[in-house]
Each structure stands twice: as structure tokens, then as C-alpha cells.
Amino acid sequence: MAKGQRHIAAIDIGTTEVRTIVGEMTDADRLEVVGIGRQPSRGVRKGVVVNIEATVDAIRQSVEEAELMSGLPIDSAYVGIGGVQLRGMNSRGVIAISRRNREINEEDVFRVIDQARSVSIPTDREIVDVLPQEFTVDGQDGIGNPIGFLGMRLEAAVHVVSSPITARQNVITSVNRAGMIVIDTVVNHVAVAESTLAADEKEFGAAVVDIGSEITSLTIVYRDAIRHTAVFPIGGAHFTNDIAVGVRTPVPEAERIKRTEGCALAGLMGDHERGHVVEVPSVGAKQPRMLSRQLLCEILQPRAEELFTHVYDEIQRAGFDRQILSSVVLVGGGSMMEGMVDVAEQILDLPARCGLPDFVGGLTGEVSSPALAAAVGVMLFGFHKQINLKKIHSLKDGAPRQAGFFKRLFQQR
Fold first, then answer.
1. Which of 121-135, 274-288, 358-372 shows the lowest mean pLDDT across its residues?
2. What CATH code is carried by the domain that includes residue 304?
3. CA nearest to 102, candidates 55, 151, 161
4. What is the pLDDT of residue 394?
5. Are 245 and 283 spatial neighbours (Cβ–Cβ below 8 Å)?
6. pLDDT digits over 402-413, tens only?
7. Percent of the chain scored above 90 by pLDDT?
8. What is the pLDDT of residue 163?
9. Are 261 and 205 in a shared domain?
10. pLDDT greater at residue 334 or residue 395
11. What DSSP letter does each residue of 294-322 carry, written as one string?
12. Most buried residue among 33, 54, 135, 292 by CB atoms closer than 10 A?
């Protein structure tokens, strides 16, 4: 981008919308949002590019809108990676420290992470991210940053995320054809956690549920590291289709009704709301019909309960019961329907909230939406990467090393 590395662009290619966000790094090492672009996406299904030309057009229009708002040309960007085919697994690696003084350095940490990422995956898949969880030195576990420790044996626990090779490459190709360079790709699981979770939630345990149009992603964070990820083939479009089939109305009208009148929990409605009548256009040339909001809720609530039951089963399967997790954070456009937070609390038996992107300044009102959590998180990834590079240059110039620096560096790889 223009002006060197002071400006950071992020692109989130979703099933219903392509979002571009531009941020500016201040002299005080803060990130200010200066531009946003949002355009309908017609070339993506379940988070995977299926029509490159349509995706390229949506990316180009979204970038042009962000350029117009920010007044900056965008020629490179960080790009989010998602989709129903993402797979996560935990792995461990171990190495010996053979030097005489036995002090662990940066090279040892990178070496043990490379050892941990040596997992068996199908030939048509590739590793798109390796997320360090914790280190163990001579049997002492729970170490966040092992650099400087004395030991003979270093172990690393990591979370490995893989994707089909073609899925990631199609995203990069689409961005390239839109006229931009991809600086780096960021797994959306990392992005949504980065933009919505407070420090205490990361430490004591939280589940981030990203409800998109056709998929829902689960990210479990505990002790400041991602411990488990999963993707379910169900999302906001399923609620829309339920309305379209249940009341026999066109899908665009069902989407409009869901956004304006939808409620996922009947118990939230008062008597006057239950009797509230919604006009439902019919298919073809038939006259519109009237539908009570109570009946609309009875269509939506079972789907919401089904979605969070899948999340609950996955949390239990992963071994993170309600005693470990402290909260559930809902993000994505599908989380914005009234009652979704309440259904999540009932099914998961945990405190829940709607997650709004945080940790940025500038046009905060424009990005204060759960639908933008992934895009803001991708931008924050790029911001942290630039800050880390700045600190590396400071270290090379003789500045004192800051505690925990390399731990943060590894989390942002």
C-alpha cells in the first residue's frame, strides 16, 4: 500500500459479502480504521471460492469502496481463509538441546515447532497455519515462552490447521486477479478470536462461535492459545430457507423477514409481540399472506437449537466442559438475530454475548458489528506482524529485549 507499511489492508471473502478494511498505524503504535468496503459475494459457497471471476469482481468493488473512503490506493492485503473444509488437529514435537550451556534460544523454538508440524495429512491438503499452545522444558509444562530457560529437552504443543491446496490457492488467485498482492493469509479462527476476546477470556477459556451464511465455525481458546477448532455445515442461510419453505415465500423475502422480524426464542416475546402480524409475499402472482411473529419464531427456534446442539456436542467431544470455559462469544452475521445469545446460553449452559470487534480506533462505529469480526481480526493480525517486525529491528539495533516478545511473535506466525 501507499506510504510504506503504515497502512494495512485486510480482505474477508465471505459467502454473502466481501469485506475490505484499511487501517493506519499511528506513531503510538495504535491501529486506526480509515476505510471500509462491503460488496455482495456471488462466487463463494460454504466459504470456498467456486467462481473465480465473480469473486474477483466482488473483491475489486469492495477494495475500490475502501480506497474511496480512505483516500489510499490498495495494492497489497492480508486475506482471511475459511471454509467448511478447514481441519484442525493438535500435535506435539520434541527436540534435544545439545549445546553445552543448555540455554534455549529462538532457533530451538522454531525447530521444535517445525517438528510438531510434521503431521500426516492427505496429499491434496496443505498446512495453512501452526498455532503454538505451550512449551515443556524437562517435564515442566505450561511455559508460554521458553527462551532463556536451561534444559536438555524441549517439547511444543501446537494446533495445526490444514486446508485443501486448491481452496487456499483459489483465494490467492482471486485477490491477485483483482490487482493486489497477498502479503499473508490468516485463518479466520485466529482472526475472530483476535478481534473479540478480552485478555481474561483468552486466559480462562472461551468459545467463539462464528455463524456465517452457510457454515458455523467454533474456536476454543484457553490459556491464551487456540486449543480446538471445528466447522459445521449450517449457518444463517438455513434459517432463511426454513422460512421460505415453511411459509412458501421467495428466498429474498424470507431473508428480509428474518432480518427485520426474526426471533430465535419464543420466551423473549411479550403478548403484544406474539400477536404482531407480518406480511409475507407469496410465490408467483398470489396475494400476500399475513403471518404472526409467534409462528415465525416457532420456525426459527428449532434451527437455532440444532446449531448450538452441534456446538455443545463438539465442545464436549473436545473435552472442554462448562467448568473450563468461562464464556461463549457469538460473531458473524448469523449471530445478529434476536434471541441467538439466549438460545446459546440455554443449550451451552454458559454466559454468552454478541462479539463486537475491538482493539482498534478510528471509524469504530463503522466496524462495530459481529459480521466484521473476521475482517477486523485479519487486519489486527497484519498490525501485530508489523509491530513484531519493528521490535525485531529494534533488537538488532541493540535495544533491550521485552519479556514475552517472542511468544507474541509465534502466536502471530
1. 274-288
2. 3.30.420.40
3. 151
4. 60
5. no
6. 433 344 444 444
7. 76
8. 95
9. yes
10. 334
11. HHHHHHHHHHHHHHHHHHHHHHHHTT--T
12. 135
Q: Tell the residue number behind the cell numbers 426454513, with chain if given.
A: 242
Extract the C-alpha cell encoding 12.
474477508
The answer to whether 81 touches 185, Cβ cutoff 8 Å, is yes
The model's pTM is 0.90
Q: Are residues 147 and 245 in the same domain?
A: no
Helices (H) and strands (E) in the chain, counts: 13, 19
Which grid cell sits at 293?
Answer: 411473529
60, with CB counted inside 10 A (0-12, 13-18, 19+), is buried
User: What pLDDT score does 397 carry?
Assistant: 55
Is-contact 21 357, C-beta < 8 A?
no
Is 291 strand, coil or helix? strand
Residues ≥6 apart with Cβ < 8 Å to 401: 395
Cell of 328: 461463549
Residue 142 shares a structural domain with residue 216: no
- Residues 6+ positions from 385 with CB-CB distance below 8 Å: 184, 412
Residue 190 lies in a domain: no
Average of pLDDT values for 13-42? 93
Report whether 261 contacts 244 (CB < 8 A). no
Residue 226 CB neighbour total at 10 angstroms:
25
Q: What is the DSSP letter of 187?
A: E
User: Is residue 244 within 8 Å of residue 47, measured between CB atoms?
Assistant: no
Residue 302 lies in a domain: yes
* Neighbouring C-beta atoms of residue 293, cutoff 10 Å: 20
Residue type, 225: A
User: In terms of Cα–Cα distance, which of 190, 215, 174 is closest to 77?
Assistant: 174
Give φ, ψ of 108 to 5 degrees. Answer: -65, -40
- State the chain's mean pLDDT as an integer: 90
By the 10 Å C-beta count (0-12 exposed, 13-18 middle, 19+ buried), 365 is classed as exposed
Backbone phi, psi, residue 285, to 5°: -100, 10
Distance, CA of 245 to CA of 324 (rounded, Å): 40
- The pLDDT assigned to 266 comes to 86
Residue among 29, 389, 37 nearest 180 (CA): 37
